[in-house]
């Protein structure tokens, strides 16, 4: 990889960027203006600015400027501080990234440079485990064998000459790149396979050279980041609606009061002018009413408190931190904690109704394990104890010792010793079985060091089978286009490879024809049981029966099965056949048909050898997680690029589908009508009356126009599953079939979509979002899941395995699928409950607080006189009541995490949105109105025409204000106490602290000293002392508190008669605390009764030809080896449409 | 060759679109051995020890009964106390033609000579302890926003600059004829200025009853909130030099009383007036009648007459004026509201307790078992 510096021109549109990145928004000087500008773009802040302006109009101003300014400044300061910290961290990490060292090739010599100094057109050298500095065109690397980028020979030393790279303008499509390299007048096409993208890490490669094509902000990574669509939660939307409702309510109140003022001024104020002349410029009662409207807007603005939005943000942030901090969602293997990448969606996690999951890498590890097999009618793979009982395999189970085999793969694990014994004893069928496995495949071996074999399998199933054969002593060691070298029980044998009868989706089998060193001519075949059983020789019938039994057993466990068979060929016949084969394979017309005819001809009368069972290894805890989520009434849809068989198999192995289901519908129609019929039949079976006109969905559908609208949930008469393949899905997503699909699919408990493209994944999610009032969650790990992750309400990325794209576009990320149940059932549920409680309380406390002014209006000439001291109004939301409610919404738990997981039914209220909705809001409002009435009329009655115990005044405005505000504060404190279910020290401290702070501040503000220093600001001097020393004041306060709280307690007690699930669980826990915790339920082994083929094979067509052609088979894309795309899915999914 | 995207490391340096990326905060992955395993603290793992009370019938029902049992006696106590208070009230507005003050109904501020009227009344019961004499006004909006703020506390607190340059809040009673008004504002301007005198009629002789005019304002008001301008307090006239009297007042503020410690801004009648009432119907302490003789009630049952110098017009806005004589208990003046409210709430509590108990007894034990896997 030598290259010298010369004129390299990289043309990207027009501009050329340096590699320094800037993700920070502000610098020291621009922070204040820019940040303020941004903040005032928020509606809430702008609204308060508007209020502030209103307050500056003297005729309107009903409150001093500080009542609005202090909260506004505080809110701006908190948000500003948060932005500043964020930006500071961005500055720091920018600096760190920009200063990373990299080696740049300058004048043929390597020179250390900082990342930020790398320019487009530079050639840089990267070493193992380095981060890729910029988007590079890979020129050469230490691993020539596995590279298919640009022929290295052509490039070695090439760049001495003038070369030119032309490429498209920077964009954010990670998997797309087009460009041309012009070298010595010749053009070479460049595509994404020849690119190394910034954000990747070099692995298993000593070094490589790359030409910088996109740098800094132009890189795919940077183009991709920062532009995430802004997701809002349903509570957000509800909150916006409610805020509008509150605005309307506010306007109504102001209107009533303004009219009241007009009448009052006309009726009384006009005559009262002897003592109180009308304000300057006010000449008529209606005009006064008009001004009063705005004055009341100012006073009553606290029904929409500015601190609402800030508090919501803080709560969500806090609850996001809990996700980051959760040790139970930390995956030690790759040191990955869970991460809440979006901190604004937490409560939505408690409302998920549909989960859309990717399969490979999410549910499964994409690791295939040779798990069981059946050879000549004997099943291997299960482990039995001395009593003959089957035991479950776990880490402690003793593995089979393969030390007799030098070439064994140490990672391979098998537990059944009897199979090894059979091999060692030289059992002929067993040997033939493994010989077949070592010969009949399209795997490429790689042996870098003696004995260190690495298989490059384009289907992981094949890899698993060949590895199994290898460990049992039939080591596939090397291949050429004509030969296969196998070390059979230590003895090297070279088989002549005569033909590969390649796999395809119709044949569902593959065969090889080989000649052994001994000269035997044999056809080895492996394939789907359903196909192969038809091709067997009649002498195998009894063996077929036994094998079928084993296959059923394997299939029931969700294993992927293949049947293997062989046939000894007649020499003459084969000579003839191979000639015809040659003719057919070179035919120009109908080659495929001719070949498959030939294949059919030779693949018959096969001798059954046995069957293999491969476990598509699930991620840890997947079946349990799915079971738990299903109990929480979450519907799970698996969207996978895999084939139908594979997907169904996984469905069974991870407990999605099981034989207890009434039926599993399979939609595989290839025309629009077929699909429609299949869907309708399925629906007919699930809910026969759903076609009647009387069905409520139909009625509703009739009533409104054909436009998209929400469908209610329909109940099926049993538990059903649905499998639909990508081809049918394409039809089903069209036009009017869409509705049919949603109705049918949403009635099923489980839906599996196979062979879907990334776009279809998003379409499916979009479909459910469109027709169902439900919160959706998409979980995936690969680039093909990005679209669905972005589309769903919540996107979850599995981090640490396939790459960063899913994670980068996700809202939450963690390393294992099983953490999903904790994320939803614990964090989501808590967040939802906390947010609901917070909103309920928050609206309540502000209604109770503000509406007192409304009632007072009727007794103060509608003059916009406040009930409370202005300082109290200023501090109420920010100081006196903010911390207790924050404490509740950060610490509250109805039941602890263990019980949340044990009782998934607790999740259901969240899905139904029971804890905070419009009805709850109306209840809050009524509760607030009731409290405000009490809070006004009790002090009113208590001080009407009365005196202190020394005869002096107590019915003055200031004493009344103090009494009302003290009652209010105690009432809301008691209320938060009633709402808090989980009293930690912090809650106690906040509640008692807030009350104490209230009294401390009140006594301070009303003290002589404060008055003498700031005479004009604290006119309430002495009120606290004079009023709160009166028993009647305390009696009134006590009475208002009791009256406000009692109905709540009574109502809650009444509600206890119909206890919710939560109440039941809490009571149960209380009783259970005395007993030891319940053991987690034991999982039983599943047995199937019905016949189901477990055939699944992630193979694709065309590799046989490649091998026979002699061209080295190499991975298609550099990402394929890490499995970014399910290897079998990409190719077919485009074809399928 | 394999290429792995490493999300976490690179993401540290890039915006994620969300509101900041929380977490370990380790920038870059270069060689940091530090594990990213979250700390095992009770706070971070949400395992803070907590008390989890559950609202059950067992805790709530006793509470209802206890509240009932506490409230009813308190209510009865308050009610009895309130009922034992002697109170006598005369409306002397004079709206009825038969009223002696009817002639004064349409007085204005500056009528000279002042209109006077006398109302005779009889106390059926004697007033044993100290008696407090109030004037009461109805339909008088002392709590109107513009009225409440129409004052200058700095001026009233003796600030000399505010004295001569009162706050804008006092408009339109800030200046008169280019001179600053002291005290400024609508409250001061509308100060109640009827004079009430009380006589006991004993065999047709009018025995004047001593009315004490000091000690009727809050101590804090008298000593902290209200102060005369600094200077020689014996010569208030000089201190208020350069100011003018409120428009409605017949005489300036420094001539409110003859005693220097009850004159000017610290005149108690003035202070009492300046403490604005919360409601449009209110009473304000006017005078004290102290019990001087331990053997005799302060006011024995019998005939009395009230002499009114009727200066304060309220008829134009349908206001009412009253004179109230009242004794006081430990919890203040006569107010049956609290007592009745307590008794009512206590009874309701008790009643609800019984109802809930019955309901609970009847239906409470159904449907309470949870469907919990075990």
UniProtKB/TrEMBL annotation, chain A:
Compositional bias segments (type: Basic residues): 1072-1090
Residue numbers annotated as active site: 358 (4-aspartylphosphate intermediate)
Pfam families for the chain: Cation_ATPase (PF13246), PhoLip_ATPase_C (PF16212), PhoLip_ATPase_N (PF16209)
Positions of the P-type ATPase N-terminal domain: 13-69
Biased composition (Polar residues): 1119-1129
Residues annotated as binding Mg(2+): 358, 360, 781, 785
EC primary class: translocase
Protein's membrane topology: Multi-pass membrane protein
GO MF term list: ATP binding; ATP hydrolysis activity; ATPase-coupled intramembrane lipid transporter activity; magnesium ion binding
Membrane-traversing stretches: 40-57, 63-81, 241-264, 284-310, 841-859, 871-891, 920-940, 960-978, 990-1013, 1033-1051
Main location: membrane
Cofactor(s) named in the record: Mg(2+)
Record region (Disordered): 1066-1093, 1109-1137
Keyword annotations from UniProtKB, A to Z: ATP-binding, Magnesium, Membrane, Metal-binding, Nucleotide-binding, Translocase, Transmembrane, Transmembrane helix
Keyword Transmembrane helix part of the UniProt annotation: yes
UniProt-listed SUPFAM superfamilies: Calcium ATPase, transduction domain A, Calcium ATPase, transmembrane domain M, HAD-like, Metal cation-transporting ATPase, ATP-binding domain N
Protein name: Phospholipid-transporting ATPase
Record organism: Apteryx owenii
UniProtKB/TrEMBL annotation, chain B:
TM helices/strands, residue ranges: 54-80, 337-359
Region (Disordered): 1-36
Pfam family membership, one: CDC50
Record keyword Transmembrane helix present: yes
Top-rank taxon: Eukaryota
Record key words, sorted: Cell membrane, Cytoplasmic vesicle, Disulfide bond, Glycoprotein, Golgi apparatus, Lipid transport, Membrane, Transmembrane, Transmembrane helix, Transport
Biased composition regions of type Gly residues, renumbered to the chain: 15-32
Matching InterPro entries: CDC50/LEM3_fam
Main location: membrane
The keyword Membrane belongs to this UniProt entry's keyword annotation: yes
Localisation: Apical cell membrane; Cytoplasmic vesicle, Secretory vesicle membrane; Golgi apparatus; Membrane
Membrane topology: Multi-pass membrane protein
GO BP term, example: phospholipid translocation
GO CC annotation: apical plasma membrane; endoplasmic reticulum; Golgi apparatus; transport vesicle membrane
Family indicated by similarity: Belongs to the CDC50/LEM3 family.
Alphabetical list of PANTHER family matching this protein: CELL CYCLE CONTROL PROTEIN 50 (PTHR10926), CELL CYCLE CONTROL PROTEIN 50A (PTHR10926:SF17)
Protein name: Cell cycle control protein
Lineage, uppermost ranks: Eukaryota, Metazoa, Chordata, Craniata, Vertebrata
